[in-house]
Amino acid sequence: MVKLRILRLLPAAALSLAAVVPPTVSVHAEELVGRSVTLAGRKMNCGKTDIMIDRSLPSEGGAGETVLILNPNMLNQQPPTVRLFVFTHECGHITVGDSELDADCFAVNRGVKDGWLDRKGLAEVCDSFEGAPETDTHPSAKRRCVNLDRCFAKAEADMTPIAPKPVPARLPAKLPPVETAGAPELPVAKSAATGQPNPGQPKVLSAWRCTDPLPITTGSVDPIGQVIKKDAEHTERCR
Q1: What is the residue range of the signal peptide feature (predicted)?
Q2: In degrees, to the nearest 5, what angle opens at C-alpha 15 toward C-alphas 83 and 58?
């Protein structure tokens, strides 16, 4: 025996829409099925909430403070998506409170996230209200359908991945200017490098083998032989 504060029904017709179990009325749940149940081929649960089967319930489903009740006879008359929606709607009451619109939105969000609710299924849920008028316990079918569309659009937008912002291209780093080596300078006499020329120094011939050019004495009997001799002496000193 379970005592319900109030049953929040998801009706299939206007008559069942108006069916409300008054507070503190005892309702006998025929069968406790645990905390999960298979509906439309899916294993459904509402956290740690107990699930009960009551074939005398005047609606497809209802919810107490800590129990979710289903009427399988009425559920099986609905399309698969509506069965899943009924269960999740009643779970929504236990999760978000008494508001029918909030419970509808809870079911829409869960259905989109879990992949069992699309636009076609949403239309089937809206059709299950059968255009019922507003009552003391439920908004009108028209109002609920408008709310379903709004919740569905938001749920789809939340599921759409946001494209990453493009990263601006970076120009390659500016390389330092390349220095081109100039032509090597010919060796000069040490006296010329120090800026102190010797006017009396004889003319020189660069052999490109040592730091100082080779002096040549004009008027020599054998100037070529003298160059070879001096070059050998310079080469010996440069080793």
Answers
A1: 1-29
A2: 55
